[in-house]
Amino acid sequence: MPRTIWSGAISFGLVTVPIHVVSAREDHSIHFHQVHLEDMGRVRNRKICELEDREVSSAEIGKGYQWGKDTIIPVLDEELREMPLPTAKAIEIEAFVPLDSIDPIQIGDGYYLEPDGQVAAKPYTLLRQALERSSKVAVAKYAWSGRERLGLLRVRDNVIVLHAMRWSDEIRDPTELKPEDVELTEEEIAEAEHLIDRLTRDDLEGDDFTDRYTEAVEQLIDAKREGLEPPTAEEPETPGQVVDLMAALKESVAKAKASRGEDATVHDMPKKTATKKPAKKQPAKAKKTATKKTAKKAPARKRHSA
Fold first, then answer.
1. Does residue 18 contact residue 89 with C-beta atoms inside 8 Å?
2. pTM for the complete prediction?
3. CA pair distance 162, 6, nearest whole angstrom
4. FRET label pair with 131: which of 58, 70, 137, 201, CA 20 to 30 Å apart?
């Protein structure tokens, strides 16, 4: 069972949903200790009080705010929890919006929200089903770790998920990073779209989306533990400067086809040919007709081509 990170409630109008917050992610990375290379002794970080010049325990450590050069104002965790702020003890839902209206760059770590006991089951289910039927997500405020935060609530596998979000003013303006305008041909854009189609998938399952770095580290550790030479990687090809963008796109499409077992033959883009305009129909000659009353020829009727 994952460890509870925070306990409180979701405030949904006048509805309150008691919840526990647990991490939605697991860390499968391999972690290393810092060691002294000469004798493999552990190197540890110790917390030293600079006035008493001694190591202090975690129980002796608190928060302090630097005011001026020589003044530090102590701030207790209890004081932060008791601040007159609604979000200090609850996740306050402020609005409901379509998910695609939120820039993904604002969305951060995810946490599962677990209902706190049977009393929370009904309001929890009510909020979950309302979110599902509305096809919207909730935007909320909450206060953790000494600051008020913005969050996003959505549903995943019948569980409400809280995503930490960045405030709008925390997102840097990327305008200055944009390259100068360049001209692209329609053929280049079409070939790029062709490559996107070839690389399109319905999910992110499979060997292409596994952590190969962690597997390689495990193999390295196993080899060194058994006294074997660690595996080495082949020297990667140095990518050259792309001169012919169209050729690079075609080659990429061919490789994408080959990786899926398709025909990897590169076909040239069809060349545009001038279309011939249909020849105009000549009006048919009118037949000569004679009348009994006069010897004059009747005027021919002109046919109009459709």
1. no
2. 0.64
3. 12
4. 201
Angle 186-198/245-259 helices, nearest 10 degrees? Answer: 20
- Report how far residue 133's alpha carbon sits from residue 125's, in angstroms, rounded to the nearest whole number: 12
N- to C-terminal Cα separation, the chain: 79
Q: 3-class SS at 79?
A: helix
Residues 6+ apart with CB under 8 A from 188: 245, 246, 249
CA-based nearest residue to 61, from 72, 76, 44, 83? 76
Smallest CA-to-CA distance from 102 within 152, 144, 68, 56 is with: 152
